[in-house]
Amino acid sequence: MKTYPAVVLAGYSTDNPDPLAAAMGMERKALIPIAGKPMVYWVVKALRESPRIDQIYIVGMGEEDDVDFGTDVIYVPNQNAHFENVMAGVDAVQRHQPDAEFVLFASGDIPALRRETVDWFVETCENMDGDFFYSVVEKEVMEAAFPDSKRSYVPIKEGRVCGGDLFFVRIAVAHNNQALVRELLARRKNVFQQVRLLGLKVIIKFLFRRLSFQDAEELSQRLLQAKGRVVLSPYADLGMDVDKPHQLELVRKELEKRVEATSA
Predict the structure, then answer these.
(1) Residue of 170, 108, 98 whose CA lies nearest to 133
(2) What is the mean pLDDT of the chain?
(3) DSSP-assigned beta bridge partners for residue 76
(4) pLDDT tens-digit readout, 111-132
(5) Which phi and psi (to 5°) does residue 10 adopt?
(6) Alpha carbon distance, N-terminus to C-terminus of the chain
(7) Predicted pLDDT at 208
C-alpha cells in the first residue's frame, strides 16, 4: 500500500487576525480548544490514524506550542500568508522526502475529519488520472451530517456544492504554477472573484448555473497545463471547516460525542 506525506495548514497572519480566534480571545485559530484538545490536534489525529499517510508536516506551529499529537511531526515555521505557508509545506516535504511525488494538504480547521475520510479520499485520487484533486461536498450531504452549519454553496450544473479542505497535489504542479496558485488562494473566500480570473465564458456559465465539474477540469488543463480533478465526497467532515462561533459549537458537540463513545 502506497503512503504519502500530509501537510496541515495551521498558519496565521499577524496582520489579519482570524475573526473566530479573536472572538474566542485566542491569538491563533488552530489552538482553539475543542473537546479538551486544540482544534488542529483532531486533524492530525485523523491523519496519523490513516495507513495512507506516512509523515505529517504542520505549517504554522512549533515545539514551543507544546501540543502532544501522539506521533512525530515535522514543524514548519509560519510564513504569515496563506500562499507562502502552502509553499513552505511543499518545500519541507521536498527536503525531507525528496522522492515524494504527491502530497495531501489538509486545512487545520476541519477538526471533525475522520480517518475513514482520509483513507477514502487518498484511494479515490489514486484511482483517478490527475495531477491535483479538489474535494467538494453536496449541500444535501453537508446538511444531513451538520444541520445548521450555514455553509456557503456554489450553484453549478450538478447542484449546489461547497469546497472541501483536503487536496491531493502533484508536487511539481505546485512549483510550476506559483503565480496562478497565489492568485487563486488570494481569492479563495470569494467564488465570483475566482471565476472572474478564469474569463468571460466561465463567468457566463457560472451566472446561468451551467458551469460543470467537467468545465472546471478542462479549465485546469488550460491554465495549469496539468490535469485537475474534482472529487465529490460522500463524507461531509472534510468540508466542515470552522469559521464562525455556531460552527465551532456544532463541531464541539460532535467531537465530545466521539470522545464519550470511545471512553464508554
Answers:
(1) 170
(2) 86
(3) 59
(4) 999 999 999 999 999 999 999 8
(5) -120, 25
(6) 33
(7) 35
Rounded CA separation 19/29 (Å): 9
Considering only residues 76 and 150, tell me which one the structure prediction assigns the higher pLDDT: 76
Angstrom distance (rounded) from CA 163 to CA 39:
20
pTM over 0.85: yes
The per-residue DSSP string of 53-88 comes to EEEEEEET--GGG----SS-EEEE---SSHHHHHHH
- Cα 205 to Cα 39, 69, 71: the distances in Å are 38, 45, 46
Q: Which residue has the cell 503565480?
A: 179
Q: Where would I find the H helices in the chain? A: 19-23, 39-49, 82-96, 115-126, 139-145, 171-176, 178-186, 191-197, 200-207, 213-224, 245-263
Q: How far apart are CA 170 and CA 204, in angstroms?
A: 30
Domains, in order of start, for the chain: 4-263 (3.90.550.10)
